[in-house]
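U., I forgot to send this yesterday:
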Amino acid sequence: MTLIKDSIISSMEYIGGIFILTAHTFMRIRGLFRKFDLFVEQIFFQGVKSISIVVFTSLFMGMVTAYQAYYQAKQYMPDVYIGMSVCKALFIELGPLIVGLVIAGRVSSSIAAELGSMKVTEQIDALEAFAIDPVEHLVVPRVFTGIIVMPVLTVIAELTGVIGGWILAVMSLNITSAIYWRGVRLNYYPVTLYGGLIKATAFGLTLTIMGCYYGLRAEGGAEGVGEATTKAVISSTILILFLDYVLSRIVFT
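Result:
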C-alpha cells in the first residue's frame, strides 16, 4: 500500500508540475516581446536548422507511403488511388506525427540539456538573484517558438512528402503525373490540413514544455543532465503519440 501511495503522490506531483509550468509560461507571455532577440534566436534554432532533416525525412516518408498504397491496392484500385492515399495519410497523420517525433528528438533533448546545464552550474540561481524570472527569460521564448514553428515545419513536410510520392509514382510505379496529382486534388479537404496543423501546434507545445520541465529540474552534474535529456525525449514521444490519438478522435470524428 505504501508503494502504491508513493506512486500516486509522485504521479500527481509530476502532472501538477507540468501544468504549473505551462500556466506560468502562458501567464508570462509578455516576456516574448521583451526578450524578442531570444525568440528570434530560437526561431533560427528550432525552425531554420530543422528544415533539412524535416525535408529529408518527409521526402522518403512520401515515397514509402506511395509504394505501400500501390502495393496494397494495385490489384483492385485505380492508379488515382495512389495520390489520394499519399495526400490523406500525410495531411492527417504522418506529416504532423513524424515531424513531432523528429523535432522532439532534436529540440526537446537540446532544451533539456541546455537548461539542465544551466541548472547544475547554478546559472538559473544567478538569474533569480538578479530578479530575472527564469520562466520568462528561458521558457517563454522556447515554448512559443515551438508552437509557431511546428505548424510551419509540418506544412513543409507535407508538401515535401507529396512531392516524394509523386517522384516514386512517376519514376518507379509507371503512374503519370496527371493521374497522381488528380488523386491528390480529389482527396484534399481543408479539414485535413487544419486538423494536421492543430496536432502540430499541440506537439510543439508538448515537446518544448517537456524539455523545459526536465531541464529546470536537472540535478547531479553531467549525469543528471543526461538523465533529464533522456526523460524529456521519452516523455515528449509518449505524449505526442497520446495527443495524436486524442486529437484525431476530436478533430476527425
